[in-house]
Amino acid sequence: MSKKMETCADCADYDECGILKEFFGKKGYKFRKYREALEFIKERGYDEFLENSSKWTMQYGKYK
Question: Are 19 and 59 spatial neighbours (Cβ–Cβ below 8 Å)?
């Protein structure tokens, strides 16, 4: 939060971040989906993510 970025996907330290490693290391489907969302944003950007997720009924869903 102190880096003033939209999400962790924008951070240059993403791959080395201890907080994210701990968060993504938790067991459970939702944690895999949260990681998938950030990876999608890193690869394709926010606009495509928002377009893709606009029809979701929960905090995560399928990607095109």
Answer: no
Q: What residues does each domain of the chain span? A: 26-64
- Report the candidate in 30, 2, 41 with the shortest Cα–Cα distance to residue 53: 41
With a CB cutoff of 8 Å and minimum separation 6, the contacts of 3 are 11
3-class secondary-structure state, position 55: coil
pLDDT digits (tens, 9 = 90+) for 24-63: 999 999 899 999 999 999 999 999 999 999 988 888 888 8
Lookup: tokens for 35? 């990681």
Specify the pLDDT at position 62: 86
Q: Chain-centre distance of CA 34, in angstroms?
A: 5
Classify residue 10 by its DSSP letter: G
